[in-house]
Amino acid sequence: MSTHHIKLTLNGETKEADVPARLLLVHLIREVFNLTGTHIGCDTTSCGACTVILNGRPVKACTVLAVQADGAAVQTVEGLAQGGQLHPIQEGFHQCHGLQCGFCTPGMLLTSAAFLAEHPNPSDDEIRWAISGNLCRCTGYMNIVKAVQYAAEKMRAASAQPAAAD
Amino acid sequence: MIPPAFDYAAPTSLSDALALLSQNPEAKVLAGGHSLIPALKFRMASPALLVDINKVAGLAYLREAGGWLAIGAMTREADLDRSALVREKYPLLADTARMIADPLVRNLATIGGNLAHADPANDHPATMLAYRAEVTAQGPAGARTIPIADFFTGPFTTSLAANEILTEIRLPARRAGDGGCYLKIERKVGDYATAAVAVQINVNAAGVCTSAGLALTNLGLTAIRCAAAEAALVGQPLDEAAIKAAAQRAAQAAEPVSDYRGSEAYKRSLVTTLTVRALRTALERARR
What we know:
Low-confidence stretches of chain B: none
Helix content of chain A: 25-40%
Number of helices of chain B: 11
Strand content of chain A: 15-25%
Low-confidence stretches of chain A: none
Number of domains of chain B: 3
Order of helices and strands of chain A: EEHEEEHHHH
Oligomer: heterodimer
Strand order of the largest sheet of chain A: 2-1-5-3-4
CATH topology of the largest domain in chain A: Ubiquitin-like (UB roll)
Largest sheet of chain A: 5 strands, mixed
CATH class of the largest domain in chain B: Alpha Beta
Strand content of chain B: 25-35%
Helix content of chain B: 25-40%
CATH architecture of the largest domain in chain B: 2-Layer Sandwich
Number of strands of chain A: 5
Radius of gyration of chain B: 19 Å
CATH superfamily of the largest domain in chain A: Beta-grasp domain
């Protein structure tokens, strides 16, 4: 089996690794780079617990080879909070009780964050469509939709404010 | 689940990719990977080499030229779904892309992979049969055109040679009076179709159907083109009687088997209902 030297950007940091061809991206993230916020749920492309953002789009990291991420930008849940401040989507899940066991949460957060970046003013139906590849077995989704709306509102308010002058 | 061991190459040109396939008869092409990687994990495939064509430039595009809509084989389902051109002029294709798997899968899954994998449960095969599409296969001796009717030879089997790569799909460009629709019943997001119907029609100013394509997903060993149902439409005013006659013939053409998605009778009944609804929607769209 071939081994490949790869170089990628993970949450803004350049990372390099030697990976066997069959290593999955989710295992690279969890076991080589030790970022265990990306969960392995079904391992069959169904549940979305392993969702990461690959070059700007959310994908299921159980169905991508690590070697395919060579040259890519990857974001995981660990990269959402910036400078000790929760991302608005994390704050929304906290405020609206958008999780119970928390297993699906990293995937839900990343799918929602990528969705809100393109849809600042979504309807509840659009949110449900966007997260339809992420399964939650606890919440019944009601509070997840509320959490995404909370984040959308917060992000709209922030973008309407002029940047603070130093 | 860890896939079986394989070698991996990511050529940056089509000629290099074709050379790798010719040198390695046990190689498989990796496109979006959302059928192949699960198949590897389940040990349903164990190729010696994966030839990843994601780094080959120029295989993802949508352009109208010469009476066709040409689609690069590496075009992602999400990009079909987002395309204003597809939404406005190719509603059958837009409906289909939007119903494949789930939003995250669609960010990587490709139209070329969906066709070349030739899973009878995949959605694009029926849609391309209804459109009367054609595809380009590139091989060591150059390119050849394959009409879609000659492409699917059995379940998971196509007329592509092992050293050929599907590079382009072409649909007839939209003409006045064209309308299409894809309707799919699935148990939940991400499941394969319990039954799905693709229709593409043209109606003239007098409301008479001048051409019709009708095909079914996951109701046989391959996608099924319903020639008898098409014949029941062409030359007829597209009224409810013609629509119902076509729907009955479509149900007769289906070859469903009873399984955990439903009984044979239920699936056949779905074909009737979905065909009626899809034809009504296609007619509305044709009149726009």
